Give the backbone structure.
Amino acid sequence: MRMYDIIQKKRDRKELSEAEISYFIEGYTSGEIPDYQASALLMAIYINKMSRKETEHLTKAMLESGDTVDLSGVNGRKVDKHSTGGVGDKTTLILGPMVAACGLPFSKMSGRGLGHTGGTLDKLDSIEGFRTQLTEEEFLAIINKTKLCICSQSGNIAPADKKIYALRDVTATVDNISLIAASVMSKKLSLKSDAIVIDVKVGSGAFMKNLDDAYELSNEMVRIGQSFDRETVCYLTDMDQPLGNTVGNALEVAESVETLKNNGPKDLTELCLVLGEELLLLGNAAKTKEEARAKLLDTLESGAAYRKFLEMVESQGGNIEQIEDISKLPKAKHVLEVRSDAFGHVEAIEAEEVGKTALMVGAGRETKESEIDLSAGVVISKKIGDAVAAGDIIGYIHCNDEEVGKAACEKLKLAYSISKHFVPKRKLILGKVDRDGIKTY
């Protein structure tokens, strides 16, 4: 078998066999196939697309390029959740404790952020001593003890995906449904949970900018999950404005704690309830959505979810004093007000620009080597549909460099569009894709 022939075959719009895809993945991961040939194949895939079978074979080959984590030693049905990434998305920090407090094991391997979308592990780094790097034995022991663990991926989980993604990033081949689906699912399937719920973000602050592409990606991921006997459900959710009110690591941890105490923003709480309902149903922890929602609400009202978060922090070496008193989390030297120049109603917020504003003050990383300022970020005071008077505070910039912070204030102001007419609130849940097909909301 020759790589030249595989490239030529895909260039000519022919379907690659499982053996050919495996040959490519094994050869490129080991270093035997050079970047220039891998780039040529990726571009052929990008232009000519992949069939359903090819996408499944690619996912399988990437999954088998590294380790998997066997959860059979964990009692009960295991559930997992993934988000395609957005601005202010701290859902995992709230959803995990809620689900675990309902008695359902929630095991999640998360990643770090790059660019304007924050990573769950970066947020957890705001807590002194919190260990995200665990051995498999520690990971399983914590899940069995507390039913909740959020940690980093092993260095050998889907190594082919890491190498291929880095190449896609510099060869303009990122934006392909099959390549995205295989990338996401090869990592999700490596953790052998029983069911997966995927939050597919759609809008200006998300990777998927339009609804049609998001449905196509969701369909592909659900099909892949089913082909591996893993129940997979996708929810399409709005990312045309930040989720919740905070963007930035320590700020998002503080907002998560408040939400776990049942004092969180309505949109963030509602999203956690919707995703949680699905996880409880898939995990056989509830028979109806109504029962699931009642159980989840009880974890917030009774404090059980908050206590479960404390338990996770303690079990992973974190300083629980920072959770019991969120004023002890990392704090920026400067908090600058951003005021509206116009009056009316908030018509739009460019979520991506809000994320870039947070990145500007150090809350994200430009490159993998960039150091994050855990205390920096943005707080949003007005959301789409809210009334605004000239001079009203629409947000705050948390920063440690005042001059950079002042420039960030102007950038955040430009992210807002104010209309003199009434503007309705945005719909949060846009649709759902499961084994039965597409449902629009």
Observations:
- DSSP finds 17 helices and 14 strands in the chain.
- Residues 79-325+430-440 form a domain with the Pyrimidine Nucleoside Phosphorylase; Chain A, domain 2 fold (CATH 3.40.1030.10).
